[in-house]
TrEMBL record:
Compositionally biased spans, kind Low complexity: 801-812
Gene behind the chain: xdhB
SUPFAM superfamilies given in the database record: CO dehydrogenase molybdoprotein N-domain-like (SSF54665), Molybdenum cofactor-binding domain (SSF56003)
Name by which UniProt lists this protein: Xanthine dehydrogenase molybdopterin binding subunit
Region (Disordered): 801-823
Species: Trinickia symbiotica
């Protein structure tokens, strides 16, 4: 990597900055609070907890069919296997056999029917993990579980055809899209598809449950949502929530995959621990983790757009068919976010959006960084690319012509104004720093001279809504303790998954109390410290928990200020807390000394804090409201080179410019931007989920499922923070950063489309490149483009056909499909 702009993420750089800013905790690129523990291997993950004497291990017997009735279950051979202590089925669950986060359609263990291949059917508890796994593998035998196969629905298309959904379709419409499309000078319709994505957290799912006295249960869980784990375990046991404590020190990544789906593991470990009165650990193997848990929703789209000579959209309709899998999980909220991100950065006066949560006999898809936002916005970028190619214009110009404006053209389809829009200046700055126009010209020259290697370039913008789109989830709590020596312990409801929430929250508290970061420690997340927390998700971890911790620290500071004014003189409102010193009335004293005086004066030195995001509301019937407190923005320029004989390609250069408001920690924010970009690139290029005709996921290990490696990071990589501050009074005027940068990777996919289209410069169609753009997909797209030049019918995925205004094609019928067609 060369020429980084802004804060360096190298540890030397971060260390130097830390030294320079020793006294200032907030707004500086301090290293992640666990950085040294991460690199030394000292950081403790759930599997690193010392095992208590008598610990047993669980392995799961998984369904061999995508959809079947369990005709018979004879577990005697499993019980007799070496080391086996107990075998449990759904019948052994004392409370509710459900761990679904919203609907009650997620059995912990299958009852009489299995709904996907990989579904847990029984749990084997043995003296070692190895013996448990060996015994569980007996599930492969017909003598153990006999199935009567039922018809399985394995594709989005098949589910859509049958109108088989886990939740009713979502439909948002504004204006008169059909009429506007019909009247437009140009029209275009198309189909597109994007694959799913496995979260591939480096630390797999895991739970360790320890029974406590009087029907208590302590569950260590690698989870983004300890309160939810507490609740589902309590329901499963049929006991009140106060019997259950869930704790998480940190995760080795979650990426949405541990927002709801840590539950089945937490429940089964707790079930076994409760039953056997012994500590029980459940750590599925990576392959089982792949087979059991849901992923990012893959999507199939149909779109239709009418536009003017400048490529300005006059009317558009889209149907987004998402693969929900066998149960609802979080799909309703994911689909809602997809609906609310179809617009991405663009004003759509007349628009119709349908989202379908298709029910298939596959894993139940769930949260993954972006949470439907990427699936909503990607099709818009593909559509605008097709529009630009239809008009023979640079897609960049068509994009900018459609940008949300300020004051006018600023109302989203769901009725929220885009009040904090920085798209135009941000894009201008990026085009300048990336040298886009000159590189576009040079690339055309290169492609004219180069028959086999073709280059492509693209700029794509991002506008991402920040807040949970379920308003009540936007709340958080914290509990801050100041001890007699002046050291501070912060408990908050957020969970650390590598994203740096603990570092940022500690920075906020340190900033509030005028202490160096070394004075502030963040505890493990624990449901007995802060109750009823939301998942650390929707990128809101630092926004919500930072505000709650700030409130708690402020309460303590105000109490201390009262006392300081008494001791030192002056007005309590003018007491200053800086450099671990307290100043008042022209005198000062060390913070620790004041704290000790406060203790001796019986001043309360700990406080809770609470935060609820203002302004957010949502009407789930009309799909309108103000679902987001604010928006985060960004844009990226990517340039690729494609080998048109093999379909292989390389990202040559990427320039990312992203808006994090006023950064609490630029080093962490740049890490999130780069990580999100590379993860998004993996989704759109190398990561391919493939189920066979039986519904068996065949890409269930790194051998067959390729996430990006360090070698995929471009040699020429420029990441910068856009100078901005949040228009809303968020903590430090910062903005959330976790998810939005994933969408910056659209630029890589669109650059690949650009390179493919350069293969057949005189083609009459836009390139039909599906995502992920694997080498096969790239070769297919080149072949389809060549066929279109030859005048053949085009049938590859991503079909686009065009019509001009004078054609007899009736626009209202142009996109097939009952849902879309029914206005
Ligand atoms: N970064 C790391 N290193 N590991 C993760 O698991 N998850 C992402 C993002 N960045 C993730 C990550 C997702 S999906 C979300 S919603 C946010 O972090 C959650 O954390 P935050 O709200 O504190 O940003
Ligand atoms: N993101 C993540 N999780 C959620 C959301 C969201 O927007 N809404 C409900 N759960
Ligand atoms: Mo992130 S997908 O909201 O956990």
């Amino acid at each position: 990597m060369t020429a980084r702009i802004h804060a360096s993420t190298s540890s030397a750089g971060a260390r130097a900055s830390a030294a320079t800013h020793a006294d200032v905790a907030i707004g500086v690129p301090l290293p992640h609070e666990s950085a040294e523990l991460h690199v030394s291997g000292e950081a403790a993950y759930t599997d690193d907890l010392p095992e208590l004497a008598g610990t047993l291990h669980v392995a799961l017997g998984l369904s061999r069919y995508a959809h079947a009735r369990i005709a018979s279950l004879d577990l005697s051979a499993v019980r007799a296997a070496p080391g086996v202590v107990e075998v449990l089925t759904a019948a052994d669950i004392p409370g509710e056999n459900n761990c679904g986060p919203v609907l009650h359609d997620d059995p912990i263990l299958a009852e009489d029917t299995v709904f996907y291949l990989g579904q847990p059917v029984f749990a084997v508890i043995a003296t070692s993990r190895e013996l448990a796994r060996r015994a569980a593998a007996l599930a492969k035998s017909d003598d153990v579980v006999r199935y009567e196969p039922l018809e399985a629905v394995l594709t989005v298309a098949a589910a859509r055809e049958r109108r088989q959904y886990v939740l009713p379709p979502l439909h948002l419409t504004r204006g008169e899209p059909a009429a506007k499309i019909a009247a437009a000078a140009h029209r275009l319709q198309g189909e597109f598809e994007v694959g799913g994505q496995e979260q591939f957290y480096l630390e797999g799912q895991i739970a360790y449950a320890i029974p406590k006295e009087n029907a208590g249960m302590l569950v260590y869980s690698s989870t983004q949502h300890p309160s939810e784990m507490q609740q589902v375990v309590a329901h499963m046991l049929g006991r009140p929530a106060h019997n259950v404590v869930c704790e998480c020190r940190r995760m080795g990544g979650g990426f949405g995959g541990k927002e709801s789906q840590s539950a089945v593991f937490a429940c089964i470990a707790a079930l076994a621990a409760d039953r056997l009165r012994r500590p029980v650990k459940l750590r599925p193997d990576r392959d089982d983790d792949f087979m059991i848990t849901g992923k990012r929703h893959d999507a199939v789209y149909r779109y239709e757009v009418g536009f003017d000579d400048d490529g300005r959209i006059l009317g558009t309709r889209v149907e987004i068919a998402l693969r929900a899998g066998y149960s609802a999980d979080l799909s309703g909220a994911v689909a809602t976010r997809a609906v609310c991100h179809f617009d991405n950065a663009y004003y759509l006066a007349d628009v119709d959006i349908v989202a379908l949560c298709c029910k298939t006999n596959t894993q139940s898809n769930t949260a993954f960084r972006g949470f439907g936002g990427p699936q909503g916005a990607l099709v818009m970028e593909v559509m605008l690319d097709a529009v630009a190619r239809e008009l023979g214009r640079d897609p960049l110009d068509v994009r900018m012509a459609n940008y949300y404006g300020i004051g006018e053209r600023d109302l989203t389809p769901y009725g929220q104004r885009v009040g904090d829009n920085v798209l135009a200046p941000l894009t201008a700055q990026l085009l300048e720093s990336s040298d886009y126009r000159q590189r576009r010209a040079a690339l055309g020259e290169f492609n004219r001279r180069s028959p086999v290697l073709k280059r492509g370039i693209a700029m794509t913008p991002v506008k991402f809504g920040i807040s949970f789109n379920v308003p009540f989830l936007n709340q958080a709590g914290a509990l801050v303790h100041v001890y007699r020596d002046g050291s501070v312990l912060v408990n908050h409801g957020g969970t650390e998954m590598g994203q740096g929430v603990n570092t940022k929250v500690a920075q906020v508290v340190a900033g509030e109390l005028g202490l160096p970061l070394t004075q502030v420690r963040v505890s493990a997340t624990d449901t007995s410290k802060v109750a009823n927390t939301s998942a650390t998700a929707a990128s809101t971890g630092s926004d919500l928990n930072g505000k709650a911790a700030e409130a708690a620290a402020r309460t303590i500071r105000e109490r201390l200020a009262e006392l300081a004014a008494k001791i030192l003189g002056g007005d309590p409102a003018e007491v200053r807390f800086e450099n671990a010193t307290v100043e008042a009335g022209g005198a000062s004293m060390p913070f620790a000394q004041l704290v000790n005086e406060a203790y001796l004066s019986r001043v309360q030195l700990w406080s809770d804090g609470f935060y609820a995001t203002p302004k957010v509301h949502w009407d789930s019937k009309t799909l309108t409201g103000h679902p987001f407190y604010y928006f985060a923005y960004g844009a990226a320029v990517s340039e690729v080179v494609v080998d048109t004989l093999t379909g292989e390609w390389k990202l040559l250069r990427a320039d990312l410019l992203h808006d994090v408001g006023r950064s609490i920690n630029p080093a962490i924010d740049i890490g999130q931007i780069e990580g999100g970009f590379v993860q998004g690139m993996g989704w759109l290029t190398t990561e391919e989920l493939w189920w066979n005709h039986e519904g068996r996921l065949m890409t269930h290990a790194p051998s067959t499922y390729k996430i990006p490696a360090v070698s995929d990071v471009p040699a020429d990589f420029h990441t910068a923070l856009y100078r901005n501050e949040n228009a809303e009074p968020t903590v430090f005027r910062s903005k959330a950063v976790g998810e939005p940068p994933l969408l910056l990777a659209f630029s890589v996919f669109l650059a690949l489309r650009d390179a493919v289209s350069a293969c057949v410069p005189d083609a009459q169609a836009a390139p039909l490149l599906r995502a992920p753009a694997t080498p096969e997909a790239i070769l297919d797209a080149i072949a389809a483009l060549e066929a279109s030049r030859a005048g053949d019918a085009v049938t590859a995925n991503g079909t686009a056909t065009t019509a001009t205004a004078d054609s007899s094609n009736d626009a209202s019928e142009a996109v097939p499909g009952d849902v879309l067609g029914a206005d």
